[in-house]
Structure formats: structure tokens, C-alpha cells
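User: Hey, quick favor. My workstation is busy. Could you predict this chain's structure for me?
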Amino acid sequence: MVDYREIMDYIGTAVDAVGVLLIVVGALAATWRFLFRHQEGPVNAYSMYRQDLGRAILLGLEFLVAGDIIRTVVVSPTLNNVLVLGLIVLIRTFLSMALQLEVEGRWPWQRAGEARPATRSGK
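Assistant: No problem, here it is.
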């Protein structure tokens, strides 16, 4: 019979696979949309491409962190693994915050109305 830790290992791996799949599919969808955004102009199309790609990476990172947490805490909760998990979560959290700032123009703790001002237009 399959034990609890083995099932959780499979679930953690499946959640990781979903994260990778989301990043790959999101990148392909963003690229597809970029290739067919001719009417919006090259600068706006590129900006939208970066935002779409950033959103795909953000969503995928959330799933990857969840998979790491499941496997580390449930499957093998040694001190060394928990410290490695903490470092991974710290790095991915920094990446997520930087990507959110890039995509939405605001920090995660800011409300939508508090977004940083857009680039100045000759003033």
C-alpha cells in the first residue's frame, strides 16, 4: 500500500509540473498574442508582451513554491531541507515582487490607485 509521504511527494511533483506547464503555456500564449498585435504599434505590443509573460511567470512561480512547500514540509522535514526551502521561498518571493512591480507598476501591498506614476511626457 502506498503511504502518506509517497502520495504527498506525488502531489508536490504534480503541483510543480502544473507550475512549469503554466509558465510554458503562458509564454507561448504571450508570444502568440505579441505576434498578432500589429495594430497597437510596436512599443505598446512589446509592453503588453512583457506584461503577459510576467503574469505567466508569476502564476507559475506560485505553483512551484507550493510544490516545494508540500514536498519539504510533508515528505522530508529535515532542518537542512527546511533551510533550503526558506532560501528558495525567499528568492522566489523577491522575484515575484519584482515581477509584480514590473507588470502592474505597483508593489503587492499598494492599492491599485497608488500605482507609481507613468513615465513623464516631456514635462
